[in-house]
Amino acid sequence: MPSCAIIWDYDGTLVDSRHRNLSVNRSIVELLTDRPWTEFKALASIPEYDAAVARCTNWRDFYAREFGLQVPKVETAGRLWTRYQLTDETPVTPFPGVSETLDALAHLPHGIVSQNARDIITATLDPLGLAGRFRHVIGYEEVGPGRQKPAPDGLLACIDVLTDIEPATAFYIGDHPTDTECVAQARSDLQARGRHIEVKSIAALYGGESPAGWRVQPDLLADTPAQIVDIVLQAAGCGAGSERSQGMEGSQ
Fold it and tell me: Which residues pair with residue 203 across a beta bridge?
């Protein structure tokens, strides 16, 4: 296995799912609050929805802060999410250039760590021909309650699956401040355990995001998916022709 791994966030990084997520949240919030979605600023439009998501730490924080849901209803919203997502027909599309980026980096293992549900991720990526590109997918169900990003649990679990050689480098690509915070926590955890794995954050800015104001700044910036290729291939052990990569491939 190469000494380099690439791990992606899902929403806003691999695919533009904002329109479906907004549609699903409108339905869930109406059901749980018994109020029309038009009464909530966060659900008024894509820009308002983006702003609300950006100021919240994770999906539990989003439901509590923006809609005043208490813990039991927040957990109910989480249980409804997969069903509503799988029945909502609003299109979800990969960002332009993502498929080509996956092709260019196909010699490396890829994973996904997301706050979305694993079944939704695979069901969406499969008809797009992308599901098979990822060796490991971690959704919100794979981590314990209260251990969503920025807690590093999901990212660390994915790193463990994708890297079995040290020293190694793992890139985590995401579009939200919790992604960079997650990398920072994962880095501290690995260092404390004496693991020789360098974790770097890449901010995916091609969906219109800006890291200005993020509490933890990203290590690297990608204005386009193609820039991710350049970033990764410049790292030691990540090139298609690297000695480590060729040696492992030849032993399989």
Answer: 174, 221
Q: Where are the alpha helices (DSSP H) in 56-135?
A: 59-67, 71-87, 98-104, 118-125
* DSSP single-letter state for residue 11: B
Asked whether the beta carbons of 229 and 104 are under 8 A apart, the reply is yes
Residue 241 pLDDT: 59
H helices of the chain, where? 18-33, 46-55, 59-67, 71-87, 98-104, 118-125, 153-162, 177-192, 225-233, 243-251
For 114, the token pair is 């997301």
Q: In what order do the strands lie in the sheet with 168-174?
A: 136-138, 110-113, 4-8, 168-174, 197-204, 220-222
Q: Strand, helix or coil at 90? A: coil
Distance of CA 96 to CAs 4, 154, 194, Å? Answer: 24, 26, 39
Side-chain-side CA neighbours of residue 165 (13 Å): 14
User: What kind and span of H or E run contains 68?
Assistant: none
Q: Residue 251: its pLDDT value, please?
A: 32
pLDDT at 237 over 90: no
Two structure tokens written together for 185: 């926590």
- What pLDDT score was predicted for residue 136? 97
Task: Identify the pLDDT of residue 246.
Answer: 36
Residue 27 is which amino acid?
A: S
- Condensed to tens digits (0 to 9), the pLDDT of residues 47-75 reads 999 999 999 988 999 999 999 999 999 99
How far, in Å, CA of 67 to CA of 32, rounded?
10
Average pLDDT over residues 225-237: 93
